[in-house]
Every structure is written in structure tokens, then in C-alpha cells.
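Subject: design request, 718 residues
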């Protein structure tokens, strides 16, 4: 028998299979979808078995499959077909699509595979008369002590073996029992709550569960109880003997949402996200494969878990950009969810208070079934206030306005907690010489360095370059380097000093270690800290009973990003962060500091009017031919040579002009927003289109004709 294997090899821009002989010892276990080790050229590499057949060519000398990487792990028919669809629509290698479906323990080098975890217990040999042995060995007090202990407890766990215990094991008086255990994923237990749905929630649940439609948008204001609706839907799915997947956009949301689901569904819940250790992911994956779970909760990659008979897929905070993978394959987990929903005849529910314009437009056109939750569960009141920072600067209030200062002091006097959002980590965001104007920039990237006080270094958030802080200008040699701009680290220090209170910071720097999100959330929930300073990771899904004030420090930061979605993302960020107050019994207050107080985004936020924002923004999108009126494909031409990148970008543009008709809008080549990244120069070409078939065909052709020393990064439907 032969196996057609899709091999992982470096020069592979095409999807090519190679046939290998299946030895008898491998044949008994081998399945289509297994990852295997095969000889390729002068080394051994990994590959996926795509087909098992008997079409042997006697003129070919076949090599043998070396071994199966993991007998229990293989891609089922659904995932194999899904990988092919991803490869076709995203214009990427099939092998990369299959690799992204598996935990890291089964990717890349098989030498790094995670071992299974075992535990050993000790028990008495039931075939031996223990009392008689004790009588005959009275002098050996240590042995008798061990035997009497085992008689009382039946078994013992022990990692340290004494000589006496080893003697008993050698004599087969005591037996070692080795069994496999799973690495336990820790979560914070919540108090059990008896969930009673409001009339709005009941209507939403009934509308989804009783509808014949398969794609839903659950549009509910913050605090309207979308999670309770998810839980009731999952209960119904489990009763029908089917399984469910719940996706969340941020790892920071996972501890609290896992607690909610674990307390309802217990051991039937598996957790899958990048903050788990490779061993934990390995064990959770095996639990899923064995059919031990009915619900998987996780971030983007959890959409690929090998659940069978899926009845429901929930994508919470569906507007989040984190559902789109930045590296190849550049898949969107929501698109994958729809594909899996079709295959399993499962309902897919998108949930958000601020869905993307494309999602809401599809709901308006009945592509998605729109279900609304228009009221919050509790009746606490939230008030909004916009502060014009142009006036505050004249009073020398550069960071915290007079109004926000008053509200923070008032909240602290009432023993209530405060959340301050600043969507920029680090201490200062700009380092400049006041004498000659020199600016510290990354030598590898076209971007300024960020100062981190905790490590006393200047660093690049893109390539990781780092250098020790100095006040001496490298250009004029004067001691005149000043750190300008504001990051969460500086804000934390300033607030702690100004209000003489305990401040907690939550950003990418403070959550880089294992279980850091969970620990920080627990610390703030327990009241050990009075003010939480953080980036956008604090804006979604978190529930704190004692928070009465949210302050947005620099709301204009995201609004000024050169992206057609900047207004949409600013509205989302402000609305979601504002939703952290008024969720319980306390009335809430939201202070938004801005230099653009007349901007329509802020007006829509304080009026909590998503439809007003949607209508205004859709008019702009229509006039400028942006989604949802057009799809967008972004081609980035990358080279270590500026001239090569420029010339090949022009070559690509000419090819597109020649091969795409007038229904397509082609923009560029233009310099990318970060022109130089990791010592590579980047030019962008944007294609706006309404039908994808022709674009995919032409881009595939381009991908095969460009020279070796130029990379084309293809991002379909950005």
C-alpha cells in the first residue's frame, strides 16, 4: 500500500504530494489525516497523509514512512476539506492550513513533541498474605510501617522512594500503578448563580432556537446579558446530544468566561487558547478527540478543534479584529465558523454590542438573522461627559482633566473603583533630543522606539529590538534626550503618585506570564487595588461590581490611525469600555477626553446610538467604495532591497491593470504605513472588488511569476 503525503519542505509554494510505502507495522494504525515522519531528500520531515491507495508504479523506487507522529491525533474529513478550501480562498500553502489546525506540540519539529503526563500510585499486592509477611519481618520496622499505612489507605502517591519501599516493590509485596493524567487548566471558581432569563433574553433564546435560519447576529447593548443567552442555547444543544464552540477575542476575557461556563457545565468544558502551556493544550486536544467534552471555549485557534456533531458555534464580541490571523494562513475565524456550521448543519451566533458595519449590513439584508437585546439587565444609570482637552491644556492639565480628576477623587472617597483606558503601552511613546531634534528610531523598522521604565530600555514593539536608556544624544552628544508622549506605564506611575492609592496595570507587558490575566482580574475584583489602568484588553467582557467610573485618557489615538476602519474601531473601543460601568447596582459615569469634541463618533457613543453611527459611517463607505460595498484584497510586496520592492510592485500593478476588468478598483503601489519592517521594505497595492473569483485567479497567477527575492503577502477580504 502507498500513502500520498503532503510534505512540509521549505521551497513549497505549491501543494504537492509524494508517495511512500506503508510498512505493515505502520499500516495497522495509519489513517488519512495522520501526521507522519517521512524521508525527504537527505533528511526526515513531517507531512500529512492525504490518500491511501494501491496505485504502485513498478518503475519507481518508493521510500517508506518512518512513523506516525501521534496515533491518536489526525485531521478528520471535515478538517481536511476545510484546509483545502482555506488554501484556495486565501491563496496560501495547504500545509500551512493543516499546521494551524493542530496544537504546537504536533507542529514543526517532531523532536519537540510534548510527552504525556503520568502519575504513579502504590498499593498492596492482593495475592500476597500481608499479615503473614508482617509477622515474618517484625524486625524491619520501616517496611511494616509502610504496609500498615497501605492497609489503611488502600493506595499512596509517592515521589520519594525509601530503600524499604524499593525492597517491597522488588519483592512484589507492593505494586506500582502507573496511569495517565491530564494537566489541569486552572480557572477561578464563581459563586453558583441561578440564572433566570429576562423577557428580552427569553425572546432572544426562543427566536434563535426555533428559527430555521443558521446564521444569527445577536445585537445586544453592553450589560444586556448575551452570555446568559449563550448558556441557555448551549444547554439546549447538549440535551440534543450535540457539541458547541464558544470563541472569545481576547485571552483576557477567557478566565471570567471560562469560570461562567465551567460552573454551569463542569468537566464537559475544554479550554483552548495561546496562554495555555503546550502540555495543557496537548491534553485538552486529546480530551476533545476522545469525546470527553461537549463545549470548547477559546480564542481564534479554537475554531479548529476536532469536535464531532457540532450543533452551535458562538463568536462573542464578533467585531474584534483579533479573529483575523495576521500571519499565513490569514484566515478569519468567523469565516471558518460559517464553513464548519455548513458542514455540521449547526447554528452560528455572532454576538456584540458593536458589530462591524459589514456584519450589521448583512443582518439588515437578512443574510444574518438579526436578534436584538435592547435593554440592560439592571436598572443602574450611566452618564457620559465629553471633556474638551484644548481648554484643559490652557489650564496645564495635559493628561488628566479637571473633571476627571474630580470624579476620580469622588469615587475613591466613596470606596469605589476606577478604570482608566489608554490604548498605548510603555512609559513614553516618543524619545527626542531637545537640542538638535534627533528622534530615537528602530534600526530595523521605520518607527520610533518606546521607553519602558520597568526595564530601563528603549524598545520596538514590532521586531523586539531593545537598547539601554541613555540621556546622551548620539547625534549632538548633549545630555538632552527627553521622553515624550504617554503610555500605560507612565500613566500608572502618575496616577499612583497623584492619588496616593494602589494602581493596577493591565497591558501586554504585565500579562506576558502564564495565568497573569487571571491573577490581575482576581486582584482587582477582590478590591486590593482601587484604580485599573490598561489598554484595549480591559475594554471587553470584564465584570467588576465596584467600578463606578471609566476615564478615557486619549480617545483620539485610535481615531487618527490611517485606516478606513479607524472611526468604527474608536466607536467600538469607547462603547465597550464604557460598558464596564453600570453593570451592577452602582450608577456609572464615563469621562471621554478628546481634542475633537465635535466628532460624530463621540456623539454616537454618549447617546449610545449604534444605528446613528452605522448610518453616518455607511454613507462615507459608500462614497469611497469601501466594505461592505466592496471587498478588499491587499497585496504587500516585500524585499530587503528598496529598489527591488519598488520595481516589482510596479510590475504587479501593470499585471493587474492588464488582467482585471474595469469593475475592479486598483490603488497603488504606495508606501506601506510602516515602510520598513524588520529590515524589509514594503509597498502596498489595494484591490477593491465585488466578486472574488477573478481576483483570486489573477492573484494566484501573480504569486507564481514574481521573482524569488521578493515576497508577496496576500491578505484577502481585509
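Subject: RE: design request

Done. Sequence follows.
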Amino acid at each position: 500500500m502507498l500513502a500520498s503525503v503532503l510534505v512540509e519542505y521549505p521551497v513549497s509554494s505549491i501543494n504537492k504530494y509524494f508517495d511512500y510505502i506503508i510498512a505493515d507495522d505502520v499500516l495497522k494504525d495509519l489513517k488519512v489525516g495522520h501526521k507522519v515522519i517521512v524521508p525527504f531528500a537527505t533528511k526526515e520531515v513531517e507531512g500529512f497523509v492525504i490518500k491511501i491507495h494501491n496505485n504502485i508504479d513498478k518503475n519507481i523506487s518508493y521510500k517508506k514512512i518512518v512513523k506516525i507522529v501521534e496515533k491518536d491525533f489526525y485531521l478528520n474529513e471535515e478538517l481536511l476539506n476545510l484546509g483545502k478550501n482555506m488554501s484556495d480562498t486565501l491563496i496560501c500553502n495547504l500545509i500551512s492550513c493543516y499546521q494551524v489546525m493542530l496544537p504546537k506540540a504536533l507542529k514543526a519539529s517532531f523532536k519537540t513533541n510534548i510527552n504525556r503526563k503520568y502519575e504513579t500510585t502504590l498499593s498492596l499486592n492482593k495475592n500476597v498474605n500481608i499479615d503473614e509477611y508482617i509477622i515474618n519481618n517484625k524486625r524491619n520496622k520501616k517496611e511494616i510501617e509502610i504496609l500498615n499505612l497501605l492497609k489503611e489507605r488502600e493506595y499512596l502517591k509517592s515521589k520519594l522512594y525509601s530503600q524499604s519501599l524499593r525492597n517491597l516493590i522488588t519483592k512484589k509485596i507492593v505494586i506500582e500503578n502507573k496511569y495517565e493524567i491530564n494537566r489541569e487548566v486552572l480557572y477561578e471558581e464563581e459563586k453558583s448563580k441561578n440564572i433566570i432569563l429576562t423577557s428580552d433574553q427569553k425572546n432572544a433564546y426562543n427566536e434563535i432556537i426555533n428559527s430555521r435560519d443558521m446564521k444569527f447576529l445577536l445585537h445586544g447593548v453592553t450589560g444586556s446579558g448575551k452570555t446568559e443567552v449563550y448558556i441557555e442555547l448551549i444547554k439546549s444543544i447538549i440535551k440534543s446530544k450535540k457539541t458547541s464552540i464558544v470563541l472569545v477575542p481576547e485571552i483576557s476575557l477567557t478566565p471570567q468566561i471560562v469560570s461562567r461556563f465551567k460552573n454551569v457545565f463542569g468537566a464537559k468544558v475544554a479550554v483552548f487558547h495561546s496562554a495555555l502551556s503546550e502540555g495543557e493544550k496537548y491534553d485538552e486536544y486529546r480530551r476533545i478527540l476522545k469525546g470527553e467534552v461537549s463545549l470548547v471555549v477559546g480564542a481564534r485557534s479554537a475554531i479548529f478543534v476536532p469536535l464531532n456533531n457540532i450543533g452551535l458555534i458562538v463568536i462573542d464580541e464578533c467585531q474584534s479584529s483579533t479573529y483575523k490571523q495576521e500571519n499565513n494562513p490569514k484566515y478569519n475565524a468567523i469565516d471558518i465558523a460559517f464553513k464548519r456550521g455548513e458542514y455540521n448543519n449547526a447554528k452560528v451566533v455572532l454576538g456584540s454590542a458593536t458589530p462591524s458595519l459589514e456584519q450589521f449590513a448583512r443582518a439588515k439584508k437578512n443574510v444574518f438573522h438579526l436578534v436584538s437585546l435592547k435593554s440592560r439587565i439592571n436598572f443602574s444609570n450611566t452618564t457620559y461627559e465629553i471633556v474638551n482637552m484644548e481648554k484643559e491644556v490652557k489650564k496645564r492639565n495635559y493628561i488628566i482633566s479637571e473633571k476627571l480628576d474630580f470624579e476620580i477623587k469622588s469615587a475613591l472617597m466613596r470606596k469605589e473603583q476606577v478604570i482608566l483606558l489608554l490604548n498605548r503601552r510603555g512609559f513614553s511613546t516618543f524619545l527626542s533630543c531637545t537640542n538638535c531634534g534627533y528622534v530615537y528610531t528602530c534600526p530595523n523598522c521605520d518607527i520610533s522606539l518606546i521607553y519602558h521604565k520597568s526595564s530601563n530600555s528603549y524598545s520596538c514593539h514590532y521586531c523586539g529590538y531593545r537598547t539601554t536608556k541613555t540621556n546622551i544624544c548620539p547625534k549632538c552628544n548633549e545630555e538632552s534626550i527627553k521622553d515624550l508622549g504617554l503610555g500605560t506605564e507612565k500613566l500608572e506611575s502618575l496616577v499612583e503618585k497623584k492619588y496616593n492609592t494602589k494602581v493596577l496595570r493591565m497591558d501586554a507587558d504585565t500579562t506576558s506570564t502564564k495565568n497573569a490575566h487571571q491573577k490581575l482580574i482576581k486582584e482587582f475584583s477582590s478590591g486590593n487595588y482601587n484604580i485599573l489602568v490598561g489598554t484595549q484588553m480591559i475594554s471587553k467582557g470584564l465584570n467588576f461590581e465596584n467600578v463606578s467610573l471609566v476615564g478615557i485618557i486619549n480617545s483620539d489615538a485610535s481615531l487618527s490611525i490611517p485606516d478606513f476602519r479607524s472611526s468604527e474601531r474608536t466607536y467600538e473601543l469607547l462603547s465597550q469600555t464604557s460598558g464596564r460601568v453600570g453593570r451592577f447596582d452602582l450608577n456609572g459615569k464615563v469621562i471621554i477626553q478628546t481634542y475633537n469634541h465635535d466628532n460624530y463618533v463621540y456623539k454616537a457613543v454618549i447617546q449610545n446610538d449604534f444605528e446613528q453611527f452605522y448610518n453616518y459611517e455607511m454613507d462615507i463607505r459608500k462614497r469611497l467604495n469601501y466594505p461592505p460595498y466592496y471587498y478588499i484584497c491587499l497585496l504587500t510586496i516585500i524585499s530587503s532591497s528598496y529598489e527591488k520592492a519598488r520595481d516589482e510592485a510596479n510590475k504587479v500593478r501593470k499585471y493587474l491593470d492588464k488582467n482585471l476588468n474595469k469593475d475592479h478598483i486598483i490603488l497603488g503601489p504606495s508606501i506601506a504605513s510602516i515602510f520598513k519592517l524588520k529590515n524589509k521594505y514594503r509597498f502596498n497595492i489595494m484591490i477593491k472588488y465585488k466578486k472574488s473569483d477573478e481576483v483570486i485567479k489573477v492573484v494566484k497567477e501573480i504569486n507564481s511569476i514574481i521573482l524569488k527575492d521578493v515576497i508577496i503577502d496576500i491578505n484577502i477580504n481585509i
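The longest helix spans residues 642-659.
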